[in-house]
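<instruction>
Derive C-alpha cells from the sequence
<data>
Labelled lines for chain and fold
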Amino acid sequence: MKRIVSLLLAITMALTLAACGGTGTAAPGTTGETGGSETPDDKEDPGDTEETPAPENLTDTQKIIQEAQGMTLGELAKKAIEESNGQMFYGVGNSSRGATALPLFIDYLKTIDPSYTMEFEWQQPKNNKIFDQLTADSLKETGTFAMTLIQDGNQIESKMTQTGILDTFIPKDWAEANGTTAKEHEGYLPMQTLNKIFMYNNTGSKTYDNCWDFVAEGEHGLFMDIDSEVVGKNFLYMLTRDDYSAMLKEAFEALAAEEQAYFTPTIDEMASEAESLGLGADGKYALAWIKLWVGSYNAQTDDGPICNTLVDQSATDQFGLLVYSKLRAVEESASVSRNNVTVAAYNDGYAGMGGFGYSHYLFVTDNTPLPWTACAFIAYLTCTADGFSAWGKDIGGYSSNPEVYAENE
C-alpha cells in the first residue's frame, strides 16, 4: 500500500507541487513553514485570495469583527464580560492546550470584573476530523463553537473560508506589534509556528547525522500518517522547492561513498520525473527522498504514541519525526526518560533538514454564539505572554507576535 501511495505522490506532484513555497521562518534545524503558507496551486498565502467584503455583504459576525479589529485587548475584554458572563464557551482545536489557556483568560477577565464567571469546554478532534466537525456545526443558525485553533492552510482555504464557515480576526495589538494593520495584513492569523523534528532513541550505538540516514536501507521512522495529519504531506510537497531540494543534494554529497551508492539508483530514477514536473536542477534529490520516506515510514495516528515509544529504553535505535511538545508529558521512571532521546539536528556536523515548521491559526466561527468573547480570547492568546503560555512553555513553539515571542524566550 505504501508503495502505491509513493507512486501516487509522484504523479500528483505534476498538478500540485511544482510551485510550492514557504513564507514562514523556521527554528534552526528545520525547513520552513508548511501547512499554512503553502498552497498547492500557487505561491500565494491562502488568505491572499480573500477580498474584504463590501459592508452591505458582511455577516453579523463579520461586522463585529470589523469593529473589534479597531479595539485594544482591554476594550475587547469589557465587551466579552458583557457578553459571556455566566455563559458557556465551547472551543475546538488541533491542540489540547486550549483547555489550559481558557482558565487563564477567565482569570484575566476577573481582573477587570471580579464577579465574572464563564464555564467552558474545549474539544480536540483526532484524525483530521476537525473540518467535518466545524462543517456540521456551521449548519446551525447559531453554532456551538465560538472559535477554533486549526492547522493546514490548504484545507482551511477550500473547506472553511471559501465556504464562509470561518472568519479571520486580526487583533489591533497583534497587528501593531507586527508593523501592520488589520486592513493591510494578508492571510490568516497565525498563533504560533511549531516544529516537528527528527528524534531518535539513544540507548544504543546508532546515531543519525544526516537527513538521508532516515531513509536508509532498513530504516522505518515513526511518523504521523500523511492521511491523518495533512501538514506532513505538505512538508513532503515543500521539499520540491528549489532551496530545499538543494539542501537535500548538499546533504547527499556529505555522505560517504558507500552510503551514496544505496541512494543513487533512486535519485537517478527520479531524474526524468523531476524534469517532467518542471522541478529545478536538484528536484530529483527531493523526489528520491520523498519516495524513500513514504515507502518506509511506520504510520502512526498521533505524535503522543511516537513519543511514548521513543523515550522508553526498550526502543533502542528507533526514531521518529514529531513535535517537541510531546516530551512535556513524559513521566520519568527507571525505564522511561526524556534523556533517552536525542534531537538529531543538535548533533555536531548534522547535514540537511532537521524537521519542518507549520502554523496553528485562529478563527472565529461565522455562526459563533459569543463573537466578542471569541475575539477577546484570540487577542489574549496572540497579544500576551500569559495567553501564549499554554504553548510557550515548550521548546519548538514560537509566537507569531514578536513582542510575545521575545518575552516568552
